[in-house]
Design brief:
- This protein is an alpha/beta fold.
- It is built from five helices and nine strands.
- A hairpin with a 5-residue loop joins β8 and β9.
- About 15% of the residues have low confidence.
- Keywords: Disulfide bond, Membrane, Transmembrane, Transmembrane helix.
- Pfam families: AhpC-TSA.
- InterPro entries: AhpC/TSA, Thioredoxin_CS, Thioredoxin_domain, Thioredoxin_ResA/DsbE_sf.
Length: about 210
Amino acid sequence: MKGKQLTTIIIFLAAIAIGIYVIYDDHVAQRGNDSQLEQYLENEGIETLPSSEQSIEVGVKAIDFTLPLYSEEGQMGLSQFEGEFLMVNMWASWCPPCRDEMPHFLKFHEEFEEENVQLLGINMTTVDTNETAISRFIEDFNIPYPVLMDVNGDVYNNYQVMYIPITYIIDPDGNVANIIRGYVNYEILVDHYETAVERYKTSYQQ
């Protein structure tokens, strides 16, 4: 009888110990999530990528590139957009702010389709998860403008990409007119685009 009671007590104590461990483990995990969230907010919606260099700055000539189009034969290069404003959005499928800002790019594309500005998406393929995740991202949003695949990391290296999302506005002469680091909404896109246009016009009036 005493043996059964002892066994029951041992089982009861073991259950308590397991419960305490689960609660502690859950607490540690939550602290980890809170820490990640806090870091995300401190970074203002920017995902940091490994790099030891500074990214290209406003006023310099944008480095030309030619990359394959997503799910299509053929390639597309930066030089093909000469004479137009170009908004280049660099993203990865695992990046939450990249997903959050995508509806705003779609709205900008729709509202400014008749303007002298083109949108171009570039997937940071070398640091993305896999082809399935990339395809799901593109298809979820039904992205209507060209998406290029940085399969060899040419853009990642040449543009020394330290953060994603990052958006470059390139003027008709091929110069970097504006850089938006981190998450953007429609209003920010419009403001940066219109600022780039005004600067471009002013430079020709002088």
